[in-house]
Design goal:
By secondary structure, the protein is an alpha+beta fold. It has 3 domains: about 50 residues; about 80 residues, 2-Layer Sandwich (Alpha-Beta Plaits), CATH 3.30.70; about 60 residues, no CATH class. Helix content is about 25%, strand content about 20%. The strands form 2 sheets. It has a 5-stranded antiparallel beta sheet. Helix 3 links the parallel strand 2 and strand 3. InterPro entries: Znf_CCHC, Znf_CCHC_sf. GO terms for molecular function: nucleic acid binding; zinc ion binding.
Length: about 230
């Protein structure tokens, strides 16, 4: 768009590094490097609007891929996980956190690791990673956080900015699922609000059309080529 050429100097001046721009349906989507902070992005949006009059939406940070390594021995810690990735030739491998399934509090753990695109592509295709004395399964880890208090995306209940709670069981307001006293079938507040046909599931659970749509949009921001 011609208007964008008027402000081509702004990203460099403000310390925001642009990875690529994509023109879609008459709009320009801007992908920025993942190290750009939210404050800088907000400043850049305001500056573009002020100088061009264009309405700006979100500038999308380019996210590094994340993979999950399943059933890792409980004695193995982050540095050892990262070393296993480096032995495969990984240019980047940051072990972020581990988690266990269900009530398995002492057994095998699963590690979430942020990697470069080439490493993700190689390991997800292979499906396995040699770590310790075992060959562990590897898969993509692309998921969205849903607040159990308000059912909003991108934050957790302890940092929820919403004024009102929303029930993840009955879809009612002013209470959470843990405090719900209504009997009856499960209802997804997200899909109810979006007028989806299928709403008999938990928010973000299997069959949640709203979650699946947002997840597809999220996956498009991941740099699988870097």
């Amino acid at each position: 768009m011609k208007e964008m050429t008027k402000v081509s100097h702004l990203p460099t001046k403000m310390g925001v590094f642009i990875k690529k721009t994509i023109q879609q349906s008459g709009k320009v989507r801007v992908i920025v490097e993942g190290n750009a902070g939210a404050y800088k992005l907000a400043q850049l949006r305001e500056a573009v609007t002020a100088k061009t009059g264009l309405e700006t939406g979100g500038l999308t940070p380019d996210r590094a891929p994340r993979v999950v390594v399943y059933d890792v021995a409980p004695t193995i810690q982050g540095p050892e996980v990262e070393e296993a990735f480096k032995l495969t030739g990984a240019a980047k491998a940051s072990a972020l956190y581990s988690f266990r399934n269900g009530r398995n509090s002492k057994g095998a753990q699963n590690w979430v690791v942020e990697v470069d695109g080439a490493t993700r592509n190689k390991l997800v295709t292979k499906g396995r990673l040699n770590i310790g004395w075992t060959s562990s399964r590897v898969g993509d880890h692309a998921k969205l956080t849903i607040c159990r208090r308000c059912l909003g995306f991108g934050h957790i209940a302890t940092k929820c900015p919403a004024k009102e709670a929303r029930c993840g069981k009955c879809a009612g307001r002013k209470h959470e699922a843990k405090d719900c006293k209504k009997a009856g079938e499960q209802k997804c507040a997200l899909c109810l609000d979006a007028a989806e046909k299928q709403c008999k599931h938990s928010p973000g659970g299997k069959g949640c059309a709203v979650y699946e749509k947002k997840l597809r949009a999220f996956v498009k921001t991941i740099d699988y080529q870097g």
